[in-house]
Amino acid sequence: MTNSHDHDHDNELDPMTARVRALETILSEKGLIDPAAIDAIVDTYQNRVGPQNGARVVARAWSDTEFADWLARDATAAIASLGFTGRQGEHMHAVFNTPQTHNLVVCTLCSCYPWSVLGLPPVWYKSPPYRSRAVMDPRGVLEEFGVRLDKDVNIRVWDSTAELRYLVVPMRPAGTDGLDEDALAALVSRDSMIGTGLAEAPE
C-alpha cells in the first residue's frame, strides 16, 4: 500500500512559514478567519508599525531639541504627535543614552514591548536567558551583542511592564551634523532602541 504522503513536496517555504500558511488555510476554509483581515494585519506590522517608526522618533529628537525635551518629559504624547500610537504603546517613557550612561530594556516577567514604535519583539527579547541575564549581567549581554562599553560607563536596566514601556534614544553618531531626518533615521536600528545596539556611523 502506498502512503499518499510519501512524495516530494514542491514547497520552497521554510517549515515555520509552511505551518503558518497551512493553519491559515484551514481556519479560512472553516470560516473562522477572514483572509483579508489577516492580510491587513500583516501589512500593518510589516509596513506601518515597526522599527522605522521608532527610528523617526529618534531622528526627530536628534534634530529638534524642543522635541527631545518633550520626549523626555512626556514620551507618550511626543510619540503620538508623529502619528505612532496603538497597542502596547499607550504609556511610553524615553531614556537617553549619554557618554556616561547606557540604557538597556528588558521585560523580566514576559515580553512587554512597544509595538507601535518597534514592531513585533524579536525572539531573543522574549527568551528566558535574555530576560534574566540582562538584569544579572547586562555588560556581558551587551558584549554578546557586540556592544563593548568602557568600564566607567554606567549601564541602567529598565524593566518594561504592561503599564509602561521604554524607548532608548541612542547617542547621535559623530559626523551627522548635515544629515536630514530621513538620513538620520536610517542610522537607527531596532536593537539600538532596545539598548542592545548602537546607532550606526554614517558612511
Biggest beta sheet attributes: 2 strands, parallel
The SSE string, one letter per element, is HHHHHEEHHHHEEHH
How many structural domains are formed by the residues? 2
Give the N-terminus to C-terminus distance in angstroms.
Answer: 63 Å
Any idea of the CATH class of the largest domain?
Alpha Beta
Classified in CATH, the superfamily of the largest domain is Nitrile hydratase alpha /Thiocyanate hydrolase gamma
Q: Going across the major beta sheet, what is the strand order?
A: 1-4
Strand content: 5-15%
- Total of helices: 11
Structural summary, described in words:
With 203 residues, this protein is mostly helical. It folds into two domains: 15-47; 50-194, Nitrile Hydratase, Chain A (Alpha-Beta Complex), CATH 3.90.330.10. Helices cover 45% and strands 11% of the residues. The protein contains eleven helices and four strands. It has helices at 15-29, 35-48, 51-63, 65-73, 75-80, 115-118, 123-126, 128-136, 138-144, 181-185, 190-194, and strands spanning 92-96, 101-106, 154-159, 165-169. The protein has a two-stranded parallel sheet with strand order 1-4. Helix 3 crosses helix 4 (65-73) and helix 8 packs across helix 9 (138-144). It is globular and about 60 Å long. The N and C termini lie far apart (63 Å). Residues 1-10 have low confidence and may be disordered.
